[in-house]
Each structure stands twice: as C-alpha cells, then as structure tokens.
Request: fold
Amino acid sequence: MNINYLITGANRGIGLALAEELISNDKKVICLCRESSDSGKLISLQTKNPGRVELYEADVTVENDLIGASKKIENLDVLVCNAGIMGARGGMMDENNKYSIISDVLMTNVAGPFFTIRAFLDQIKQSKNPKIIIISSHMGSQKHSGSESYFYRASKAAINNIMTTFSNELKPIEIPIVSVHPGWVRTEMGGNFATLSTQESASSLYKFIQKIDMADSGHFYNYDGSKLEL
Ligand SMILES: NC(=O)c1ccc[n+]([C@@H]2O[C@H](COP(=O)([O-])OP(=O)(O)OC[C@H]3O[C@@H](n4cnc5c(N)ncnc54)[C@H](OP(=O)(O)O)[C@@H]3O)[C@@H](O)[C@H]2O)c1
Reply:
C-alpha cells in the first residue's frame, strides 16, 4: 500500500531528516515549510526523487496557509506535526520571557499542530491507515526538575493535553494520535552536545510510526516507542 506522509517544518533539523528517512524507505512525502524558510535541501531532495516529494509553503501559525496547502493535496495517511520553536531558554529573568516571544512559542507549538490537524483532517479521514503524530518534548512532562525554558515546557505540556482531547474526539472515527519525544537531537534547537544525530532520531521515529495503532492513541512516547508520563 502506498502511504503518504506530511511533515510540517520539514526544511531542516528533525523534519528534514524524517523526510529523508521516508524517501530512503520508498515512501512519498509532502513537505511543508515557511515562505521565509531556507528550502534548498528540500528542493534538492525533490530533484533527486522525482514524483516522491511535494513541497508547499505554510507557516503553522497561519491557518489559511495550511488550508491553502490542504486544497492542493488529495491523499494523506500520516500527519507529522513537527514545526516548533524554543523561545527563552533561561530562568524567569531571561529577557526573552516577553510578550512577542511567549506568544510566538504558544502559537507555533500549541496552536500550530491544532491548526495543522484541522486543515488536513478531511484527507486523513479518507485514509485506510491514518495516523497523527505530534513531535512534543519530554520537557513538557509534568514530572520534571527543570527550572528554565518556562514557556517551551508549558507549550509542550499544552500540546500533549490537546493531543489527549483530539484522541477522545477522533476515537469514534478510529484515527490514532500520539505525542512523541524525538530524543535530544543535534539540531539548531538541540545544540551540538545533544546525544542523537538527526538520522538516528528520524530512523527510530520512522520505526515507531509504523507500529502506531488505536491502542496507542492518547499516549505520550519516547522516540524508541517506550511510554512517557504526560
Ligand atoms: N532537537 C531536540 O533535541 C528536540 C528535543 C525535543 C523536541 N524537539 C522538537 O522537535 C521538533 C523539531 O525540532 P528541531 O530540533 O528539528 O528544531 P529546528 O532544527 O530548530 O527546526 C525547527 C523547524 O520548525 C520550523 N518552524 C518553526 N516555526 C515554524 C512555523 N511557524 N511554521 C512552520 N515551520 C516552522 C523551522 O522552519 P524555519 O527554518 O523556517 O525556521 C524548522 O524547519 C520541534 O517541535 C521541537 O520542539 C526537538
């Protein structure tokens, strides 16, 4: 069966690595990135794999962008809400704990996946093997000892909560939805000292995504498929 995947924020980091992993597994991938994004690596992936990479512009905080992209897409099975930002990394006095940055973090990490899922729900509903994956973070777990990154943590806790609500609403139509921590990954967000390469994270995520079914819906997982506390 030909399974179509869609990834938001696919132009770099974990999103790009997951797109490459899908292509190396003979899948078709629909890649979304912002108009302002550097999409060079995605265009090169598209050129090297004719007919297997579709590329559309969408900022996940702009619902009309997502609806516009959705109108161009017919078939979709697996939706991966990956786009995310960090905002302030420090403690309460971090100067980036200010209105504009807090609002960007919440709009991108919380409203972004919500708008994305709504925009592509019609296509997902038509799939014989639908799945929705939200790339969250263990930093959003309520059981943590961290004393920094206030709004990033809060945003990932909030999207995990929204995932639970979606799982309840989507249960009658049998669409599974999960949140996944991708590991600590060497990207612009994760930094150079992170333990996993983007390829290692993407390869584990891909294997886990294959196994997701309705029994997993509403839960939070590590990239290796083990369960995490919400
Ligand atoms: N790296 C880690 O260790 C780690 C750990 C836990 C969770 N995560 C999560 O994993 C996901 C990917 O992170 P990453 O490490 O790959 O980060 P990254 O390298 O900073 O990449 C972030 C991606 O999100 C896109 N993005 C940001 N805001 C967007 C918006 N409003 N609309 C559309 N795209 C947007 C970026 O596009 P531009 O190029 O246009 O900015 C970029 O493609 C995030 O949700 C993050 O919270 C990462």
Summary: The radius of gyration is 16 Å. Residues 58 and 120 are 13 Å apart (CA to CA). The mean pLDDT is 97.
